[in-house]
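Reviewers asked in the last cycle whether our approach scales beyond single polypeptides. To address this, we selected a multi-component target totalling 509 residues and predicted its structure end to end. The input consisted of the following lines:
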Amino acid sequence: MTTRSMLRRTLFREEEPEWLVWALVIILLAVGLIARTIVVNRSSAFSDANVSVSYPASWAQAKGDSADEVLVVSESFDAGLFPARFVLRQMPVTEISTSAQTLGDFALKWADRKAKDLLGYKVLSIGETQVRGKNAVRVDYVYVAEPVIATPNSVPIVAEGADVLIRQDDVVTVASMLASADAFKGLDGVWGRILGSLELK
Amino acid sequence: MAGETCCVCNKSIAGAARMFGGRSFCDDHYARLGQNRRGMWLAMLVLIIGLAAFVAAVFFGAPALRTNLQGPWLTIAGLLLALVPAAAWLGVFYLQDRAEPEPKQFVIGVFILGVLLAAAVGQPLIQDVFGVNKWAGGSLFLQLLAGICIVGVTQEFLKYAAVRYSIFRSVEFDERIDGIIYGAAAGLGYATLLNVQYVLQNGGVDLGIGAVRIAVIALAHASFAGVTGYFLGRAKFENRGPFWLPAGLLLAAILNGVVSTLLSEITRSGLRPTPLNGLIFASVVAAATFLTLFIIMRRSARPGAASA
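The resulting structure, written as structure tokens, was:
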């Protein structure tokens, strides 16, 4: 008896070997995992005269609410009641404050401004950070938001966000990351990659 | 063939064993081989037609009910709706199957196993580990790939497991049609969990659109699991070769992925939901699947066996 025929007899000694079903499941899930890894790590680029940034390719561009919003990208609407979102704004320094001197001052003024716009806005922390070698300040906060896809019986959710403010000459760039509070921490890697790709020209 | 044992009850066979599909049977189980229970097919027919008619009635005929129910009452109404498909199927099945009923506790047990596996393994794996909703919506190809390789294979394997590792080896699994019965029970269990999750996540449902969605999910999952159940049913009583069960699972996973992708495409027109398209499509898929299984089961019945 050859080794090949012995192996065949060992593997297929049962009439319906169960390991083949498990093998099929594992192979298909592995294919799915590879596809997920490729899609999640694939990115699209945005660039204009002042700024360039990359974001997950599966996210879609959306229309901004105000003129200072340079870029708004969001997860698919299938992702949940409040899909994660990245918003990039650029505005003159004077629009935030005419008196602020340090980045910390700008962060406080910015937080005051957001508190007027968002329901239940609460700052969790303000701290210095760096974006591609540039000094920046990060404001972490929570607020109460309406689900993006609301039904008549939908209840508001707690959203978490982080705004990173970078000053370059007379312009302040604000990179905002928003998601439901449950999902925010799980997106650390995505936020890191987006911020890592942000380049001010 | 003296000294052989029956492949169903494992009892020694006195005298010559009855052979079918390469397996030995005692007289009693050989006689049951070709049975093609009328009650099961009728229950399936009633489920498809009755559910479609019931849901259409809720969708069109009860606008007052839709607006009057609020808050917890809407959630309770949604949860009751989520249980309607399984209750209807079980009810009709037992009414039609009184002559030789499948033990209730086993059918309900497999149904509950379907619910538990969906809640404990299936949905956490699909939603939290693979996060399918977050990345697979970009293109039709991605939807299909994730629909088959992740969602389809996970859901269909768990329904397969609910039957294969519970009732399959039991003496009660004594007819080929039992594969479809228990498969459908596991499928309806999985669908019930999906529907309950949907109701709770949305704090109730719009009774019109929600009822349609609940019916669509139930019909689709019963059909997919019916396919796997058919392969399991034949594997128990015939030597079908090593690739028979993987082929059945793969076919059910592909059916799951393709049908789910098509459903997501045809149930919206731009941003406007078009749920009745989904109901019609799911009813056609369920009817076609069970009609095909019925024809195959009749043709594969052993010569001379009663097929009704």
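Chain B touches chain A through 39 residues (CB under 8 Å). We regard this as preliminary and will revisit it once experimental data from Aim 1 are available.
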